[in-house]
Known about the structure:
It is built from 5 helices and 2 strands; from the N terminus they run αββαααα. It has helices at 2-23, 34-55, 62-75, 79-90, 94-123; strands at residues 28-29, 32-33. A two-stranded antiparallel ribbon has the order 1-2. A hairpin with a 2-residue loop joins strand 1 (28-29) and strand 2 (32-33). The protein starts with a helix and ends with a helix. The mean pLDDT is 84.
Amino acid sequence: MTYLYVFIGGGLGACLRYAIGLVYPQHLIWGLPTKTWIANVLGSLLVAIAFSVQKNLPQQSLVEAMVVIGFCGGLTTFSTYILEAYHFILHKNYGSLAFFIFAHHLLAIIVFIIFLRATDTILGVKT
């Protein structure tokens, strides 16, 4: 049954992300793509609320499955990432937090560039 809640939440989150893209197709705020920024900030807000609500529940709940994993997973690019970063802050492990953030962003950019170029090369696409 939990899979169904994740599935429903993910579908709804993805639909909201799509809708945000329709409203803000190419606009920029502070040099950031608006649709991604709005989705990620909204997702962070929802993860924070869900995490807070879940703390008062006796066990892992459907709140996490439907809201955090499903809805925010479909909406954002980093619903779990932000929660993992928070745990470093909670435990005052700031060195690991800095490395965690740096490694995620740098590795994601490097992997994207490498695989974009490799795929372009394989498909014969000029960049």
